[in-house]
Amino acid sequence: MRSRCGFVAAALVLAAISMPAGAQAFTPSKPIEFVTHTGPGGGADVLARLIAAAMEKEKLMPVRMQVVNKTGGGGATGMSYLMEKKGEPHTIAVYTGIWFTNPIMREEVKVTMKDLTPLVRLVLEPAMIAVKSDAPYKTLNDFIDAAKKNPGQLKQSAGSLGSRDWLVRQLLMKNTGASWAYISFPSGGERIAALLGGHVNIMVIEPPEVGEHIRSGNLRVVATIAEKRLPRFPDVPTLKEAGFDVPNVPQVRGIVGPPGLSADAVAYWENVFAQFVKTESWKKILEENMWEEGFQRSAELNKFIDVYSETTRGILREGGVKVVR
Prior knowledge:
There is one protein chain. It contains 11 helices and 11 strands. By secondary structure, the protein is an alpha/beta fold. The protein folds into 2 domains: 162 residues, 3-Layer(aba) Sandwich (D-Maltodextrin-Binding Protein, domain 2), CATH 3.40.190.150; 95 residues, D-Maltodextrin-Binding Protein, domain 2 (3-Layer(aba) Sandwich), CATH 3.40.190.10. The strands form 2 sheets. Strands 2-1-3-10-4-11 form a 6-stranded mixed β-sheet. It has a 5-stranded mixed β-sheet with strand order 7-6-8-5-9, with helices on both faces. Helix 4 packs across helix 11. The longest helix has 21 residues.
């Protein structure tokens, strides 16, 4: 018995000696700064607040998540902010497709996703093209025809250059020969208000941003940007079904951290979100927002980034946009 105890003790001492000095599993010890590049009501902001509330409800973390809006530059401000937080595991951010697109099309944007620490992918999501319910456009073709008759006169309520709504506009204009103005607003709330107020004519929008307005009859969906029709809108055609031969512009959302995160910190965030996506709270969020489950851990996500970026380059080139990276 004494011999066995001595063996165990020796093994423990050996393990302690082989462990790097100061190494220990990361656990948050202060509130998490949860960065989003959009203002209140924007898609990334909506997702961040849903996650923060659900994480608290499910009691998956020992600290709270505080959403911080770092708007500007189509995601560039948020990305630069993360760079300043090098090695800080208490700061994470929601990324979206614009975090891939901006560095590809804008030379002045110096930070790429690979400069940061990709943690997990969470969702792939469709989008909808909506008009005001009393607009004369019953279909997307109606809007395109009107835009052809009045070049540059109709307006699209939108976000940053390089975002999905901008890419969709570029592709549709190239495909149809129509043209219309692109009016950029800093937040989702302002974009929707402009459409509801009749100041713009059309909008490409994610389901969580506009659900209540569609349910109340204030907006009409004329097409969806998805591989197949959305279950809640079985009568609304996809772009391809509506006769527009353009790529299905992908949208992705997930979590990224500052550069230089330790392996322990990466593992912590991977595991927390791996638990989170199995909860009933998350399943309810997916259903209510018409999102597709797309969970990937860091290693898989890094491979996905390469594929997604190359796909985005192709879409940009097809839309007539210069690619700088």
